């Protein structure tokens, strides 16, 4: 007996308050404003994205807190600067304090016109997981900014100003999972595609109104059988512009054509641009690659992990569509493992390889030799 997909819209859910707090804090960081991050012990520190540091914003942060701000870097960025810390983040200590040029030099490997500051007295201290400074770096990542912040702990007498957005460490840590679990189907339409005329797009939105993920459904998948599926991470440059730096455009159109040829299946189009670091940071990573770094090291140089994606949203979308088993079009074993860990049975991995071109040979080689991709 065949079992069709469930594409009906889900019920509206009120957004969980922690999601809202994180969204507000993200917007504040992105516009260069100060936010207050509150730890499990209710103590608060003020934070500013390093990317937004100016003489004025640093002075404002210092006045608010009544203490000098410290620069917090991810452990990846600290390692690049020669300081290995056994913690998720590191606090930079400079006896003379910190100024915007030093912040730029330390936090942003692409800021090349910045003169190297005197770093002879620079030390770094590990910043524990679950702490306010570590969470501030995670918040900068959620904001798709460089993973570096300026943090100032208010003096005992300093009052928490009204108007400053307050966000809890736990809300930051749980944000991605909570947002993924809150996804619901919001709309659906028939969209005939050049390679798959019988196609529909279903949009999934998290309860906080965050960015939607899409399912492109081709034909009439039968969920009683493993469904031919592809998890495709958004790539503006490759998917839309036909960039030759990667294989994404070929993989996207190739998957649609292959699914159409097979009769039916699903392509999940996941809003995880740049392996989860965002388009702006991916462009920074491209600059570093033009200087000789490979695609994975460029991420590390910027302070990110080599791959920041999570696949709970994909598993959740499949679940909402009624799909429990898939035949997965991918060369990436991590996608297979991640789906399985989230309870989706990967009955088969279907290779998804396309010919290299003059511009993406190195990229594909790195994915195979260092990224564990199966070519
Ligand atoms: N950070 C970064 N992201 C990149 C780069 N090149 C491509 N990407 C991103 O990498 C992702 C590629 O996604 P996928 O093709 O779904 O994933 P994959 O890990 O290659 O796995 P399969 O294609 O399934 O084998 C997209 O989000 C691209 O935007 C790069 O040089 N740096
Ligand atoms: Zn791409």
From TrEMBL:
Catalysed reactions listed for this entry: GTP + 4 H2O = 2,5-diamino-6-hydroxy-4-(5-phosphoribosylamino)-pyrimidine + formate + 2 phosphate + 3 H(+)
GO BP annotations, alphabetical order: riboflavin biosynthetic process
Pfam family, one: GTP_cyclohydro2
Keywords: GTP-binding, Hydrolase, Metal-binding, Nucleotide-binding, Riboflavin biosynthesis, Zinc
InterPro entries with a match to the protein in the record: DHBP_synth_RibB-like_a/b_dom, GTP_cyclohydro_II, RibA, RibA-like_sf
Binding residue positions for Zn(2+): 235, 246, 248
SUPFAM superfamilies: RibA-like, YrdC/RibB
Origin: domain of life: Bacteria
Co-factor binding comment: Binds 1 zinc ion per subunit.
Active site: 307, 309
Binding-site residues, GTP: 230-234, 251, 273-275, 295, 330, 335
Purpose: Catalyzes the conversion of GTP to 2,5-diamino-6-ribosylamino-4(3H)-pyrimidinone 5'-phosphate (DARP), formate and pyrophosphate.
Stored PANTHER family: 3,4-DIHYDROXY-2-BUTANONE 4-PHOSPHATE SYNTHASE (PTHR21327:SF18), GTP CYCLOHYDROLASE II-RELATED (PTHR21327)
Protein name as annotated: GTP cyclohydrolase-2
Biological source species: Magnetospirillum moscoviense
Gene symbol of the encoding locus: ribA
